[in-house]
Amino acid sequence: MNNLYVRLAKNNLKNNKSLYVPYMVAGMITVLMFYIMMFINNSAGLEKMRGAYYITTIMSFGVIVVGVFSYIYIFYTNSFISKRRKKEMGIYNILGMEKRHIAKVLAIETVFTAFVSIVGGIVAGILFSKLALMLIYRILGIPVTIEFSVPPSAVKNTVLVFGILYMMTLFYNLMQMKLANPVELLRGSSVGEKEPKTKWLMAILGVVCLGAGYAIAITTEQPMKVISLFFVAVLLVIAGTYLLFTAGSIAVLKLLRKTHGFYYQKKHFIAVSTMMYRMKQNAAGLASICILSTMVMVMVSTTVCMFAGLDDEINMLYPYEINVQTGYSEVKENVSEQSSDIIQFIEDTGTNVTDSESYSYLNFAMTLEKDSLTIGQKPTNASLYFLTRDNFLRMDHTLTEADVPKVEAGKILIYREKRFQSTKTLRGDQIQILGETFTVQQNGYCKNRCNGGAISFMDGVYYIVVDHMQTLQKLQKLAIAEANTENVSAYAYENVLGINITGTETEKIACSGNVENYSSGEKYGVVWRRVRGRAVNRKELLALYGGFFFLGIFLGIVFLAVTVMIIFYKQVSEGYEDKERYRIMEQVGMSNVEVKSAIETQIRMVFFLPIVVAALHVVAAFPLIRRVLSLLIMDSGQLFVWCLVTTVLAFAVIYYVVFRITSKIYYRIVGNQVR
């Protein structure tokens, strides 16, 4: 009896190979991707490199994302196959097989499918894992020989995750069969042929969600809100997309049907009528294609932009090879003595100093309310740099003497970075700072990112140029008093010393370490000191951005593969459903040319709808992504535009190729209608 079940399962898989072969190949691909992510995450070589924390964190995130999408995708394709085979299961039931016998056949089929997918995927993953690790080492610039290895934990976790997944698909299939009677099983592949009702509430809600998501993306400008509302916008767009494809598409099709000039044309009549009757079934698939397409384009373009602009960002964050930031307990007229000591120390170690620059300021996080700046219990929303004119000119070396006028007594100059030009602003003729009233002599913008392009998630970064050092001394005392704290370090007078040196990258890293360990600041009233070396931190940022770049490309491939398979199954599903319908149309008098024209119109309308909507999503998301990148010091809007346009065009080409290939599959299933 058991052999009978095995033979039935074998014959079923063979007879439905057009469905199961792509299903198993897709399963192998998802297993392959998951195993590679697990392999990289468990790589011993990555743990030893600088910035390993970033890489392992990013790869752990990648493992979760690939795992979640594997579950979603396998369930989607399994539900499609399950629906296509309901009629077959119904025939078995009517011919005398009990449901428990059919369950055994399904179990054998699932075990075989799971075995091929998991084992095949792990074997392929083992073969390609070294290549993937070599790629990420290449991206990170790590000259290491990679030994072949098979981490047992990666294999175990992959088998566990996908074993549970296929058990869940089997349970789903058994429940579908158990809850249905034989008649429902026989009609299973034809369910959904009733004309869907127009769900205006869902359609309107979809428009509202999509509009709200677009509005957030286009209008949000305050840095903290950009970060906090980013995922809100994403969720709103996803919800709006599914609602509009599910309910809005039906509403639009019915409006087209009422437009007689459009509807009563042969190719439009057939296409609109056919799409309307099946849109309820296809809406989720089309929405998924749209969301996945958007994710691929946004993720790849963003990570490519971040990686391509890495050197510019490093030069902005670290203007000099060695950047020494020192905090003093009180405002000093001259802080050059310790700077001279540090430069002399570097030269004494045998390193050649080519040039240096130094500037000083007070920096407080403050609360801005109606042109009043305070320090207290309220949340801070602005970062203030208070400094004299000569220090400001050294901070922004692109400014000239003519750009910054001399400050009159009791007045101030206010400058902002242009990335914050649309946020809260100090625009009054007079402002209060810590209870003191100052007259604004000039309000303008910096030409460059000041202070090494400091990252700030405040609503604004302001540079307040004061008239004299005594004003800075007074502001420091007022800040400490208003904060009611003895922690002078939080309100220290800061000096930034930038030093350029010669030597190899290894020598520069060693010099940075020597300066970090150098301690002679006690006699100068130093309360803290930070040393940031360009060569040292380049490795940290390379690990961070290189990891994101690899993950973006990797997940882009995963999402693209899932998109292609969803399109494939959608075309196969529509082919089987349309075959009989078009045969009837020819029998009632439509010519083959007319039927073929209707088929082509329908395919183009349905196939390109998701990519058009995805392109709209990308355009709407551009301002928000641009601001997020700007907060992360990626100031090159032109670079991001080029990366985005290139990614969209490349994806459009791939999408068109998939369209041509899957359309041939559709035509082959439909049969005589494409003579």
Arithmetic mean pLDDT? 77
Low-confidence stretches: none
- Count of DSSP helices? 20
Strand content: 5-15%
Major β-sheet, in short?
7 strands, mixed, barrel
- Output the structural class: alpha+beta
Give the topology string: H per helix, E per strand. HHHHHHHHHHHHHEHEEEHEEEEHEHEHHH
- Write out the strand line-up for the largest beta sheet, numbering strands in chain order: 2-3-6-7-5-8-4
N-end to C-end Cα span: 46 Å
The portion of residues assigned to helices is: 55-70%
What integer value in Å does the Rg equal?
A: 32 Å
Task: Please tell me about this protein's structure.
By secondary structure, the chain is an alpha+beta fold. The protein contains 20 helices and 10 strands. The chain has helices spanning 2-15, 17-41, 44-47, 52-84, 86-94, 99-140, 152-179, 182-186, 200-219, 223-258, 260-263, 266-308, 310-317, 336-348, 389-395, 469-483, 505-517, 534-587, 592-631, 637-670, and strands spanning 322-328, 353-368, 372-374, 382-388, 411-416, 430-433, 436-445, 461-466, 493-501, 526-533.
Record the SSE blueprint:
Layout: H1 2-15, H2 17-41, H3 44-47, H4 52-84, H5 86-94, H6 99-140, H7 152-179, H8 182-186, H9 200-219, H10 223-258, H11 260-263, H12 266-308, H13 310-317, E1 322-328, H14 336-348, E2 353-368, E3 372-374, E4 382-388, H15 389-395, E5 411-416, E6 430-433, E7 436-445, E8 461-466, H16 469-483, E9 493-501, H17 505-517, E10 526-533, H18 534-587, H19 592-631, H20 637-670
Helix pairs in contact: 1-6, 2-4, 2-6, 2-7, 2-18, 4-7, 4-18, 6-7, 6-18, 9-10, 9-19, 10-12, 10-19, 12-18, 12-19, 12-20, 13-18, 18-20, 19-20
